[in-house]
Fold each of these.
Amino acid sequence: MARLKTAVLISGRGTNLQALIGACADPSFPAELCLVVSNRPDAEGLRRAGAAGIATRVIDHKGFADRRGFEAALDAALREARAEFICNAGFMRVLTEWFVERWRDRQINIHPSLLPVFPGLDTHARALAAGVRIAGCTAHFVRTEVDAGPIIAQAAVPVRPTDDEETLAARVLEAEHRIYPRALRLIAEGRVTVVDERVHIEGAAEPRGVLINPADS
Ligand code: GRF
C-alpha cells in the first residue's frame, strides 16, 4: 500500500521530528516523510532531516509582509513536494483560517499538556504552579484556535515533588515521542475519522490500569 506522504513543520530542536524520522525509517510504517519545512533558518531540526536524507526547505516568515504571504509560500512548497499530510512538530507560527481550512483534518500537532488544560506557551511552568500531579501530552488535529482541535492521542506522566520545568518537560517529551508517531500511524492506516469534532479510531486498543499519583507507599 502507498505510504502517506507527510511533511513536517518545525521551528527548532526537532526531537519530535526525530521520532517521526525513526518511525518512518521502518518500511512497514504506513507514512513517509517527503519534506521538512522550517520557518527559522537555524533550526536544529533541519540538520536532523538532512542527516536522514529528507528534503528540507526554509521559509522564513520574516521575509513576508503578512501571514498570508508566508502561508501561500508554505502551501506551495507542500504541494510541490506532493505532501498529503502535515505534522507540526514544535512549529511556532500561528496559522490563519485560510491555511488551516486548506489542510483541514490533514494537519496535526503535538502539545506538551493534557489538552484542553494548559494550551499555549509555558505549559510546564503553569502545570507546576497549579500543582497538578499528572501531566502529559496531546496529539490533535489543527484548528484555528491554538492548541485546540479534535484529540487523537494523549499520554499521562506523573509530576514528581522535585520537578522543575526542565525535568517535567523531559518526562513529557519522552511521552510525546511515543504518541506522535502512533497518531500518525493510526491516521495513515486510515483508522481515524473526525465526527462532530471528535476523533473516532477504528479498532483502538483499550489501555489497561490507572495512573495514580501518589502511588501506594
Ligand atoms: C514539544 O514539546 C512540542 O510538544 C511543542 O514544542 C516542543 C518541540 O520540541 N509543540 P521538538 O522541537 O520536537 O524537540
Amino acid sequence: MKYTAIQNYINGQFVSAGTSKTMEVISPLDGNLLSTVPMSSRADLDTAVAAAKKAFPAWSRTPIKERVQVFFKYKTLLEKHLKELAELCSEENGKTYGESVAEIEKCIELTEFATSLPQLVTGEVLEVSRGVECRTEHVPLGVVASIVPFNFPSMVPNWTLPNAIALGNCMIIKPSEKVPLSCGRLAELLKEAGLPDGVFNVVHGDVEIVEAICDHPDIEAVSFVGSTKVAKIVYQRATSNYKRCLALGGAKNHLMVLPNAITGMTAQNVAASMSGCAGQRCMAASAMIGVGNVDAIIDKICEEARKIVPGQNLGAVINKASQERIERFIGEAERDGAKILVDGRNTKVAGKENGTYVGPTVIDHVTPAMSVATEEIFGPVISIMRTNTVDEALAIENANPYGNAASVFTQNGGMARYIIDRASAGMIGVNVGVPVPREPFSFGGWNESKFGVGDITGKSSIEFWTKLKKSTTKWNAEAGVNWMS
Ligand code: NAD
C-alpha cells in the first residue's frame, strides 16, 4: 500500500473513524493499491459537526476581508504544490498528468474568485424615510456540507469550499470513496494557510454518511455533485429535512455539427470533448448530431480519435465496473445496428495490464432510441446521430432529460443564435466543445442535471451560501413625524 490508511480530518487533526469498516483505494492507472478509506459512522459525522459548530461563531464574526487572507495564502500553496497535487489526482482518479495539472489550475482560479468576494458581497443601504435606513447584509448560514463525486478529486471540492468558507460558513466535506486522497491534502494546505481548526472538516464514507448529512439537525445547507440518481435522493432527503440544497446531477451533452463548420477545428474539439478525462466529465460531448452532410467532418473526427492513445494522452476510467459498463454500451449499439468507426474495447496498456482503460470510440448511425443515445455513458465514446434539419437536431437535444451543456459548430452566426435560444441546457458552446464558464460566471445545468435554485460557483453561489439580513434603523429625533414611528 503506497499511502498510510486514510483518516478523517476533524477540528484541524487527522483522526481515526470510529469504525473498522474500510474500502480499498485502487489506482485506475495500474490497479495498484494506494490506501484504504474508512466508512465512517453517524457518530464520526456528529463529532465533525460539533467541531464545525464550535468554530462557527468566531469564524463568522471574522471580517470577510480577514477571512479571504486565508485564501490568498491557500492559492499560493496550490501553486507551490501544483505538481504534487496533480500527481496525486492522476494516481487516484486515472486521468493524465496534463489533465490533472489543468484541474489544479482550475482550483487556483476558483480560489482567486473567492478572494474577490469582499468586493461582491457589499449589502445595500437606503434612507427610506427621514432618519430611517433599511440595510441588507449577506450573512453565513452556519455548518454546511459538500458531497462530491469521483471525477474531479480536487476541482469539485474547490467549487464549494473556498466560497462557502470565505463567506463565513464552516464546512464538512464528504469525498468520493473512490478518490479520497486529494481532500486530505487540501485540508493540510488550508491549515497551513491559516484556516482555524474546525472550519473545514473531512468525513469519509459512503451512503450512510450522505444520509446522515441530509438528516443532521445542525447542518444548514447541503451541496451535492454526482449522478442524477443520487442527486434526486439527496435533494429530496435534505429538503424534506428543511435544509437548503443544491444537487448537481449527470449529463448527456449534445454537439450539433452543421455542414458549414470548420472541419479541422470541429473535429479536434469533438474528439477532445468526448475523450478528455476519459469521457468522465459532466461537460463531455457524449452525443453528436450531424445536420445534413457532415461526412468529411466525421472522417476527420475518426482521424483525431485515432491519435488519442490510452496510457499516453488518454487516462484510465475509474474502475473495472466502469470499463465493463462502457464496453457493454458499445456492444449494445453494435447489436442495434450502429456502426463502430473507432472501437476502444479490449484496450490494454503495456506494463499497466491491471489498469482500466477504454480507447476512444466513435459510433455512427446511432438512432435516438438506442441506449448510447439516451444514457450517460461516462467514457470516451461519442454517439453520432444524423438529421436533415436544425429543428430535428434541436428536437433530439430537447427531448433528453438532462441539460448540462449543448454546443453548436457552425460559421453561421444567425444559426448559432437560433440554437442558443432553443437548446435546453444551462451551458451552451458555440464552436466550443466543453463550454464550462470561467469565473466569475457560474456553473450549473438545467433539467435533470441540477436540482435546486441558482448555480454552484461564481456570483450565483453567494446566494446559496448566505442568507440576507434586513435591518431597519431609526436614530434621529425627527423620526417621530414619519410613518415608521
Ligand atoms: P455518484 O452519484 O455515484 O456519487 C457521488 C457521491 O454520492 C459520492 O460521494 C458517493 O459516495 C455518494 N453516493 C453514491 N451513491 C449514493 C447513494 N445511493 N446514496 C447516497 N450517497 C451516495 O457519482 P460519481 O460516480 O462519483 O460521479 C459521476 C457522476 O457525477 C456522473 O453522473 C457525472 O455526470 C456527475 N457529475 C456531475 C457534475 C455536474 O456539475 N453536474 C460534475 C461532476 C460529476
Amino acid sequence: MATVYYEKDADPSRLEGKRIGVMGYGSQGHAHALNLRDNGVDVVVGLHAGSSSRARAEAAGLSVALPEEVAKASDVIMVLVPDTVQRGLYESAIEPHLDSSKTLMFAHGFNIHFKEITPPADVDVSMIAPKAPGHRMREVFTQGSGVPALVAIHQDASGEALPNALAYGAGVGSMRAGIVQTTFKEETETDLFGEQSVLCGGTAALVKAGFETLVEAGYQPEIAYFEVLHELKLIVDLMYEGGLKYMRYSVSDTAEFGDYTRGPVIVDDHVRAAMKQVLAQIQDGTFAREWIAENHEGGHRFKRLREQDAGHQIEEVGAQLREMMSFLKQH
Ligand code: NAD
Ligand code: MG
C-alpha cells in the first residue's frame, strides 16, 4: 500500500520566515498562492510584465513581481506555468538565481522526468501535485477542507526535502485531506497514461465512436448525443461518489447486465494491447519527444487536430442542444 501523510505528519512552521514564489497565476497558480496567503505564508507571484493575470493577482491582494525577481527573492520556487513553457522560464528567469538554499517545486513531473529541466545537484527538487483543478482546490479550501495531493522528491540535497514539501502541502490545504507519496517517474507516466488512454483520449474516442455508430445506423444525432455524451456525466458522478459498485447499484438491472456482458466486448484484448503500446511510448520517451518537437515546430499539427475535431458533428449538435439547458454555463 502507498504511504499516505496526514495533518499530524506535517510541520507548517517550516514555512515561517520563508518566502514562497509562485510562478504563474493560472488554474493551479491562483489556488496555491491564495491558499498559502490565507494560511499566513509570505507569497509572491511571478508574472511577466505583460501578463493578463497580473491585474487579477493584484486585485486578490497578492504581491506580484517579475519571474526573475521572484526567483531571486524566494526560498521556495513553485513552477506553475504551463508545462510547455516551463523550460524557457526556468532557463531565463529561475536557473540564474538558484543556489543551495533554495527549493524548486513542481505540480507535475514532466519536465524533470523527461530531463527538459536539470537543476543543479545542490538544490532540493520536490513536487506537490494536488489531485484537482485549481478552482476546485481553492473552493474546497475556502470551505475549510482540502483536496488530496501527491508528494514526490527528485533531489534531497538538504536532507529535509520531504518535510519541507509536506509543509508546503499543508500550506495549500492538502494535508487536511492527505498526501500520497509517489515519485516523479510514477506521477508523470501514470498522469500521461490516464489522460491519454482513459480520461481524455479514451473517453473522447469512445464517445465519438458511439455517436457515429448510432448516426450511421440512422438514429437522430440529437438522440445519439444524449445517449453517449450528455448522460456520461451522470454515470461518472456515481462512479466518483462510490466506485463502480455504486454506479451499478444506481442504474437499472438491464443497464447493469449490459455492462457486464457487453463492456468487455468493446474494451477487448485489442484495446488492452493498444493501452500497453501507449504506455510503452510514454515510458520510453517517444510521446514526450513528439510533444516537445511539436511545440518547437510551432504546434501546427496540434492546431490542425484541434480544428478537425471542433468541426465534428457531435460538437455542432451538442452546441444546439446545450442551448436548451439553461442550467449549463456558456462556453
Ligand atoms: P495554466 O494553463 O492554467 O496557466 C498557467 C499560468 O502561467 C497562466 O495563467 C499565466 O499566468 C502563466 N503563463 C502562461 N503562458 C505563459 C508563458 N508563455 N510564459 C510565462 N508564463 C505563462 O496552467 P495550470 O493548468 O495551472 O498548470 C500549471 C502546472 O500545474 C502544470 O505543471 C500542470 O501540469 C500542473 N497541474 C495542473 C492541474 C490542473 O488541473 N490544471 C492539476 C495538477 C497539476
Ligand atoms: Mg492528471
Amino acid sequence: MAASAAFIHRFEPATAPGLPPLLLLHGTGGDENDLLPLGRTVLPGAALLSPRGQVLEGSMPRFFRRLAEGVFDEDDLTRRTHDLADFIAEARTQYGLPAPLALGFSNGANIAAALLLLRPEVLAGAVLLRAMAPFAKPPVADLSGKPVLLLSGRLDPIIPAENAAGLAATLEQAGASVERRSLPTGHGLSQADVGIVGEWLSGKRAQAA
Ligand code: MLT
C-alpha cells in the first residue's frame, strides 16, 4: 500500500497563494483533527496536511513507540520517521505541494525533529512545540538554511530544559537557523505559543514574498 494511503490523514487545500503548506503532527492521544484549528490560526490560507500517528499506546495514537515517558524506542522511531517521510513525499505528489513546514506538538514535535535529522529533504523547516532530543546520539544532517522555531515550557515536567537546549544545539550545528524561546508555562500549549508561532510564520511569509 502507498504510504500516503497507509496514513489516515486530513488535507485542507490552500485558500491563499504563496504560503508554505503546514504538516501538522499531533501529540500523544491526539489525532489528525487536533491541530487543524491551530494551523488555520497561525497561517491562515495555507494548505494543511495532518496525518494520524500509526502507533497505539493503549487507545492513544502516537507517531512512534516509547519505553517510558521521554525514553524512546529508537529503532521504532527510525522506522516510523522514514514511513512518515515517505508519506510526505507521496502526499506532495498527490496534492501538488511544495515541501511543508512541520508544526508539531510534543510527540509530534519529537518526530518532526527526527524528520529533520534523518530525512531533512522532506521539510522546509519546523515549528517544534515542547520537543525533546529524539535520539541519544543524533545522526549527522545537513540542515543549512532551514528555519526552526523551538518553544519550550519552563515549568514542563516532561522535558528538562537541558534536553531542549541540546536539541537546539544539535539542529544549529547541523546548519539550521534556530530560534528558541522558553515560556513561563508547562507542557501544554498556551496562548503565548499561538501568538509567537503566528508572528514567526508571518515573518517567514514576508521573507518569501
Ligand atoms: C514522547 O513520548 O514523545 C514524549 O514523551 C512526549 C509525549 O508524547 O508525552
